[in-house]
Amino acid sequence: MRPSFFHHFAAVLLACVVFGPAWSQTSSSNVWTLQRCLEHALEHNLQLKQAELGIVRGELGELSAKGAFLPSLNASSSYGVNIGQRIDPFTNTFATDAVQSSNYGMSSGVTLFNGFQNHLNLRRARLGLELAQTNVEIAQNNVALSLASGYLNVLFQQEFLTIAQLNAEATGRQVDRVQKLVNAGAAAESDLYDVLAQQASDASSVVAAENGVTLAKLALAQLLQLSGDEADDLDVAPPSEDLLETAQLPLSADAAVAFAKSAFPDMKAAELQVTDAYLGLDLAKAARLPRVSGSYNVGSGYSENRQTAVVNPVYTNVTVESTQGILVTLPAVMSEGVYETMSFQDQFTNNLNQSIFFSLSVPLFNNFGIYTNVERAEVDVLSAKLAKDQTEQALTQTVEQAYADARAAKRTFEANDRALEAAQLAMTNAEARFEAGAISALEYADARTRLDNARINALRTQYDFVFKTRILDFYLGRPLSL
């Protein structure tokens, strides 16, 4: 994640507090508070839904890892017709006619030992689920990042529009006064032209500011994925008026750095990646161990060629008298029996067979596959550790930079606030002198320009200072309240 994320995420929390008092004062359905924006985005944002699917995948991965401990169970069947001579497996005789036969069976297998790979896979699956949940938190923060930027941009543009409208109103009053002076012959007509030019410039500034508000609202509406009509009616709640009362600058950034390292989701994700890399290394090493598995099979079959006697053959002794008058017994004569195909039920029972097997597999050499997998896993561990160190380093630098930015923002705001006071005094003096005819309209316009710039700079640096101090409060784990 980019280091700037922490600033933006803190901005969301800041804005939730800063604008909170004003939210309770707005009831129109077209006025959106930041909280309403976040709730809407968390429900409709596609990026977040994609991240949530990662949790579903993680749950399925955990279920699959648990299932690896259970035996498998499979059923099978087959049917065929034999044409030509073959040995019938159920009668053990040659069959030359077309014979129909079928087989049915069930088999089960279980891994008894595989180097604890099933246990490692289960731990890794649970770790993956936890990582997916962390990624959802990161996705939520990214959504908040975009919304906070868009929301604050609307507020800024509205403030700029307010300044432009105030300037236009002030110039309009000057136009009326100079017109009266010109009509009375107390001022040159060129002064009127100068003020009218300023009025036209102010009108252009108002239009530009209105366009800025419109574009900012459009960008926010697009982030919220609103329809065209909803985007046209979009408005945001105004900020509270006491922004600076609770803005406090810490003495140092150390406490904020410590809290951010222990609480931010990207640090958790980096640590989970290191743990996952170690589990991958253990899995690669487990492939060196023997594997023991067991299986059980039961089956039966049917053959059209298997016969059973309906009427058994009968052996009959025949005695005849010879020519010499002696009785002679001839060899027994067997009568032909009657046969039919044995029934399916009887064959299924008679042909039933079972088997139990145990197998042992010992890896001796597999073309350096296990070796390279172990070495690759060790590289992955080193890479994950470096990534974690980089994340920690980036976070530390981000917090330290935020502290330095907050100090600079405080000094800049104080300087711009003094500059605004001076510009307001100068403008009041210039307005009085212009009304008295002591300065030209051009000099008056210059004073107005300086005041405009001072107002914009003061407004910008005020928001910047409050925003950056709240970032440090967030890093310190303090409740953000005004």
Q: How would you sum up this structure in a few lines?
A:
By secondary structure, the chain is α+β, with helices and mostly antiparallel strands. It has helices at 4-18, 20-23, 34-44, 46-67, 117-183, 189-224, 228-232, 254-263, 265-286, 344-350, 369-435, 441-475, and strands spanning 31-32, 72-82, 86-87, 94-95, 99-113, 235-236, 291-303, 307-311, 315-321, 327-334, 338-341, 353-361.
Overview of this protein structure:
With 482 residues, the chain is of the alpha+beta class. The protein has 2 domains: 379 residues, Outer membrane efflux proteins (OEP) (Up-down Bundle), CATH 1.20.1600.10; 35 residues, no CATH class. The protein is built from 12 helices and 12 strands. Strands 2-5-7-12 form a 4-stranded antiparallel sheet, with helices on one face. The protein has a two-stranded parallel sheet with strand order 1-6. It has a two-stranded antiparallel ribbon with strand order 3-4. α5 runs antiparallel to α6. The relative contact order is 0.14. The N terminus is likely disordered.
Outline the secondary-structure elements:
Elements: H1 4-18, H2 20-23, E1 31-32, H3 34-44, H4 46-67, E2 72-82, E3 86-87, E4 94-95, E5 99-113, H5 117-183, H6 189-224, H7 228-232, E6 235-236, H8 254-263, H9 265-286, E7 291-303, E8 307-311, E9 315-321, E10 327-334, E11 338-341, H10 344-350, E12 353-361, H11 369-435, H12 441-475
Parallel strand pairs: 1-6
Antiparallel strand pairs: 2-5, 3-4, 5-7, 7-12, 8-11, 9-10
Helix pairs in contact: 1-5, 1-12, 3-5, 4-5, 5-6, 5-9, 5-12, 8-11, 8-12, 9-11, 11-12
